[in-house]
Specification:
single chain; mainly alpha; Rna Polymerase Sigma Factor, Chain: A; Arc Repressor Mutant, subunit A; 2 domains; 72% helix
Length: 191
Amino acid sequence: MPNTSDQPDDVLIVALAERDLGALATLYDRYGRLAYALAYRILGEGQAAEDVVHDAYISAWRGAASYRRERGNVRGWLMSIVHHRAVDVLRRKTTFRPAPLEAAAERAADDDTAEAAERNVEHQTVRAALEGLPQAQRRTIELAYFGGYTHVELAELMGVPLGTVKGRMRIGLQKLRRALEVQGTYRERSR
């Protein structure tokens, strides 16, 4: 097995697509800590973050042939896989779990239930409006608001200039606001 530690990422991804374990190991050495930090930031649990990184690298191994340089750098591609895996885990953890009857008896009255239902509809409307955005704008907004990333961190993670991140965020939020105004969901917050 040739030494891959000094190879550029673009060469490593080609080797990975050809099933070179050395390329996988080198990419893990380069980005494994960053991948773990990202997964941990989303999940807040060490073991779950380790599992996500493991799954993400297996996915990269299997899907290396699908990598497209014109869509971003290898680092951003790997972190995108980690992010998506972590969000999937987070969604599975927050799915409905039946509560015991005692807990239901302690629940709030119908007024609170109606407010919760209204918030749920609003959340679904926002999610649908997000889905209507172009992928780059949606991903930027999701990483910033749900992942907690700053503009500088997003630029580094996505492998794009800071101005591009800010532009995607501004235009995406404008489109999101217009979509919510059309549906009557958008309300100006008081300052």
